[in-house]
Amino acid sequence: MAVQLRPASRLATLWRQRRVLQLLVSRDLKVKYADSALGYLWSIVEPLLMAGIYWFVFTKLMTRSLGEDPYIVFLLCAMLPWQWANGVVRASMRALNKDSKLVRSTNLPREIWVLRAVLSRFADFALALPVLALFAALNGATPSWHVVFFPVAVLIQGVLLTGLGLILAPLAVLYGDVERLMRLLMRLLFFLSPVVYGVHDVQDRLGDGLSGLYVINPFAGLLDLYRTAFFAEEWAGWAPLGVSVGSAVVLLALGLVVFRRLEGPALKEI
């Protein structure tokens, strides 16, 4: 059993071990694409196919009244970060089991295995961004000055997913139903988040009361902020964004506490 680090030293140790984290992320990417002829292109296949399916359904088979044109760009602005989130949820629940011998035997802060999941899936997200730029150029979607908020959205999502991953990683080890429950919740959350529609669509149709409840979902303001890069006029306002920022901070703080308290019992199970 590795020596337990004091809470005050864990963040400093994580910073000192950033090279190890970089190597772990690089290893994940190399292993993922090692036997693939298409290589990193697989990182864009799923979001591109999903966006293509929804584009076809809502523009060719149905009369669309949600979202904005060009709709494929509207979809990709939210689909890509959603795939990042979905990937982190899946990976974080296996983060401690994946390399259990290393997790138990090293003196690294175990939070590094959750950060590995977040950053590995972020790499997939970043590699898919040229596809968004390509479709925007092909469809005449010109970015506005609000594109400067894109990195802000990335930062908020990174904090949010790190907190969520820190909660899920030990819980998934201790309780087998957590993984099944989260798969179901993520499917539901996809349709309850502004991926195929926008926050402004919810506000227009549900009014202030119900739309106020809707923006409790932290992905509402987050995905809305991503979309301001190309659809600045559809920005839903500060309230959804404030919820997203607040949720990210609270989840990170809660995640650090939960992970620290459940780390010992989780290590006994792996």
Fold topology:
Layout: H1 7-16, H2 18-33, H3 42-61, H4 71-92, H5 95-98, H6 100-105, H7 111-138, H8 150-174, H9 177-192, H10 199-214, H11 218-227, H12 238-269
Provide the residue-averaged pLDDT.
86
Number of strands: 0
C-alpha termini separation: 12 Å
Strand percent estimate: under 5%
Count of helical segments? Answer: 12
Instruction: Please give the radius of gyration in angstroms.
Output: 19 Å
Biggest β-sheet strands, sense, barrel: none
Describe what you observe in this structure.
Residues 1-5 have low confidence and may be disordered. By secondary structure, the protein is mostly helical. It contains twelve helices and no strands. The chain has one domain. The protein has helices at residues 7-16, 18-33, 42-61, 71-92, 95-98, 100-105, 111-138, 150-174, 177-192, 199-214, 218-227, 238-269. The chain starts with 6 loop residues before the first helix and ends with a helix. The chain is globular, with a radius of gyration of 19 Å. It is 76% helix and 0% strand.
